[in-house]
Design goal:
- The N and C termini lie far apart (45 Å).
- This protein has a seven-stranded mixed sheet with strand order 2-10-9-8-7-3-4, with helices on both faces. The chain has a four-stranded antiparallel sheet with strand order 11-12-15-14, covered by helices on one side.
- It contains 15 helices and 15 strands.
- By secondary structure, the protein is an alpha/beta fold.
- It has two domains: 134 residues, Aspartate Aminotransferase, domain 1; 226 residues, Type I PLP-dependent aspartate aminotransferase-like (Major domain) (Aspartate Aminotransferase, domain 2), CATH 3.40.640.
- It is globular and about 60 Å long.
- Helix 9 links the parallel strand 8 and strand 9.
- The protein binds pyridoxal-5'-phosphate.
């Protein structure tokens, strides 16, 4: 079986993506095709599923610890895929990146402190800052000549005004940028100059198209390693989000201990047995599967780029991506309000995409489409969008 070509019905599995369409898109229509939340319609690598099945056969799920060989597997992965030398003593495990991010914000900033994000950006960044009583500061990305760039002048000004921490999204969801070394170096220079702690969410690190290369910002220098806390996980890469496993890389020993104290208080000294098994198997055996996945995603991306703008007479633009399985679409030429666009896509096109406005006001009248699906699903979605757009007066 080719796991990237065989369609597997995910309905009736309590899948957020497939079984919550009516609630999320506020529709009674059974026929809205879901290409929204960031998980994939592909099964995890066979080696991961085999390891989980073997563990389930054992049948006892008592408290499970993460030994040094598992930690070494993580370090080997980071060295092999990203050229980053990570000491296993820098690793802390946690159920999810958002759990870790919340813990880092609470540990290293005070209520009322400024925490900066680069909008449009992953929706929970907003709530994790605001709901922990911190002040959200936005440094919008600049959209110019079909691509997004960091606005360093604005960033420096906001650092100067007193930013305590910045949540970096690298690679960037939803715009698909894989930050270049020069961009990260400039950011690092400013973070060090103004003593801003970088909380680097690198969950999409493995999902990068050649010749782009993911560079962990903490790997730039020893100084930067100490100024950064990095959040990573095999869950996006290998489609394991439901198993809730992730890890934090903290080279600064004091910071690591402080964060572990808070995680332990919340009962996260121990983690989900099956998540640990899946992480270990994925990092040990997942290379070949991941390389094939990247080819499938890139092919899907090219498919959308080749069809959508041309078949809609340029009314829908696609922002080319360098990584992630998410693609950012520009619907502004339809001249609809943001609200009308959402209803149009659900009711006329019958596709369920993520509203660009959920990533910040810069995302209004943009949409995010999930490319990690079967070609038939994607083809159907593009057919529907094209037909609906071309029916507009
Ligand atoms: C940038 C980013 N961070 C974090 C997450 C979620 O990670 P977790 O499920 O480990 O909290 C996602 C999921 O799409 C994401 O895109």
């Amino acid at each position: 079986m080719d796991e990237f070509k065989t369609f597997i019905n995910r309905k009736n599995t309590n899948s957020m993506k497939w079984d919550q369409v009516k609630r999320v898109f506020q529709t009674d229509d059974d026929d809205v095709l879901p290409l929204w939340v960031a998980d994939m319609d592909f099964p995890a690598p066979k080696e991961v599923n085999d390891a989980l099945i073997e563990r389930a056969r054992h049948g006892i799920y008592g408290y499970t610890f993460i030994d040094d060989s598992i930690k070494q597997n993580v370090a080997n992965w980071l060295q092999k895929r990203h050229g980053w030398d990570v000491d296993i003593n820098w690793l802390t495990f946690s159920p999810s990146v958002i759990t870790s991010l919340y813990n880092a914000i609470v540990t290293f900033t005070e209520p009322g402190d400024n925490v900066l994000i680069q909008t449009p950006v992953y929706t929970p960044f907003f709530s994790v800052i605001k709901d922990s009583g911190r002040q959200l500061v936005e440094n919008p990305l600049r959209y110019e000549n079909g691509t997004y760039r960091m606005d360093f002048a604005d960033l420096e000004e906001k650092f100067r005004q007193g930013t305590k921490a910045m949540v970096l999204c690298s690679p960037h969801n939803p715009v698909g940028r894989v930050w270049k070394k020069a961009e990260l170096e400039k950011l690092a220079e400013l973070a060090l100059a103004y003593d801003v702690l970088i909380l680097s969410d690198e969950i999409h690190a493995d999902l990068v198209f050649e010749p782009n290369k993911h560079i962990p910002i903490a790997s730039l220098s020893e100084e930067m390693a100490k100024q950064t806390i990095t959040f990573m996980s095999p869950t996006k890469t290998f489609n394991l989000a439901g198993l809730h496993i992730s890890y934090i890389v903290t080279p600064d020993r004091k910071k690591k201990m402080e964060m572990e104290k808070l995680l332990a208080l919340q009962g996260f000294r121990m983690l989900n047995t099956m998540g640990i098994i899946a992480l270990n198997a994925a990092y040990e055996h997942g290379d070949r599967w991941l390389n094939r996945l990247l080819a499938v995603i890139e092919e899907n991306k090219t498919y959308v780029i080749n069809r959508l703008p041309m078949e809609t007479n340029g009314k829908v633009d696609v922002i080319d991506s360098e990584g992630t399985y998410l693609l950012w679409l520009d619907f502004r030429k339809l001249n609809m309000s943001d609200k009308a666009l959402h209803r149009f896509l659900v009711e006329e096109a019958k596709v369920g995409l993520n509203a660009g406005s959920s990533y910040g006001k810069e995302g209004e009248r943009f949409m995010r489409i999930n490319l990690a699906c079967h070609k038939e699903t994607l083809q159907e979605a593009i057919d529907r969008i094209v037909q609906a757009v071309n029916k507009l007066p």
